[in-house]
Write a structure and sequence with these properties.
Layout (H helix, E strand, L loop, with lengths): L2 H15 L1 E3 H8 L3 H13 L3 E4 L2 E4 L9 H4 L4 H12 L7 E4 L3 H9 L6 E5 L2 H7 L5 E5 L3 E3 L4 E3 L1 H7 L4 E6 L3 E3 L3 E4 L2 H13 E7 L11 E4 L6 E4 L5 H8 L4 E4 L1
Parallel strand pairs: 4-5, 4-9, 5-6, 9-12, 12-14, 14-15
Antiparallel strand pairs: 1-3, 2-3, 7-8, 10-11, 11-13
Helix pairs in contact: 2-3, 5-6, 6-7, 8-9
């Protein structure tokens, strides 16, 4: 197995499992840990993985995006804490946008049921979860349904959003970094999220710490456009401070 073939195998493992461990890869491939570290550094240099202590996480890109079913199995306790903390930021908002994805779905489940609320969403799962909720009116954006998420995209969804003024938007992304802002692999998804940013008075980003520092294909917003970033304690306090210097409050749930 040459170096390129080995790196392709490492990348496939990272994308299949979400993350890889240096020691386990070295044992599986029959090479030294230092060789694996060099391979991971090369893959990171190409924007395909992000190094962590002892391993690496797969980075979503124009050619790779994890399906919703996989996301529901990763970092579940962290996502539950993030969702609870994000829902507490609702304030007096009466109209709310809830993005596609598993963490936003958990945020929707944490929203109060004791007062009237209108929820706009592109997520079929979120719309289904809230459809019978007392006091909540659900508006599902129209458009083409993406199979992996599943959620609505394309010009129909963007045009529908352009008619709204939304009090608070809970926006997710595949990556958030101080240099590149919020990014996502799919252009049609990016268009919907960018229109949400224009329609919303207040904006909250929610995502696990592994999304911080990662950059994908399509830029949709800058960090400074958000009033809050809600993540987990896996984001170092020093890095949280760097994000806060750009404007948003950083909450490590």
């Amino acid at each position: 197995m040459d170096a390129e073939e080995r790196r392709r195998g490492i990348l496939e493992s990272a994308r299949r499992s979400g993350s890889v461990d240096v020691g386990q890869l070295a044992a599986d491939l029959g090479v030294s840990k230092e060789t694996v570290r060099r391979d991971l550094n090369r893959l990171e240099g190409h924007g395909l993985v992000r190094r962590t202590h002892g391993g690496a996480h797969a980075v979503e890109s124009a050619g790779f995006e994890t399906p919703l079913a996989f996301r529901t199995t990763m970092h579940v306790p962290e996502k539950s804490r993030i969702a609870a903390a994000a829902a507490e930021l609702l304030g007096d908002a009466e109209t709310v946008f809830v993005d596609e994805g598993y963490t936003p779905q958990l945020i929707a489940a944490a929203l109060p049921r004791d007062r009237p609320l209108t929820v706009v969403t592109s997520s079929l799962a979120t719309a289904g979860d809230l459809a019978s909720a007392e006091n909540i009116t659900v508006l599902l954006l129209g458009g083409r349904v993406r199979g992996g998420t599943p959620a609505t995209v394309a010009p129909w969804a963007v045009r529908m959003l352009s008619c709204f003024v939304i009090d608070l938007a809970y926006v997710g992304a595949n990556g958030i970094s101080r240099e590149h802002g919020l990014t996502t692999p799919e252009p049609t998804v990016s268009e919907v999220k960018a229109q949400v940013m224009r329609a919303a008075r207040r904006r909250v980003f929610s995502g696990v710490h592994t999304e911080c520092g990662a950059a994908s294909f399509c830029h949709l917003a800058d960090v400074a456009e958000f009033e809050a970033i809600v993540t987990d304690a896996g984001l170092p306090a020093a890095e949280a401070q760097r994000y806060s210097l750009l404007g948003p409050e950083v909450i490590r749930a």
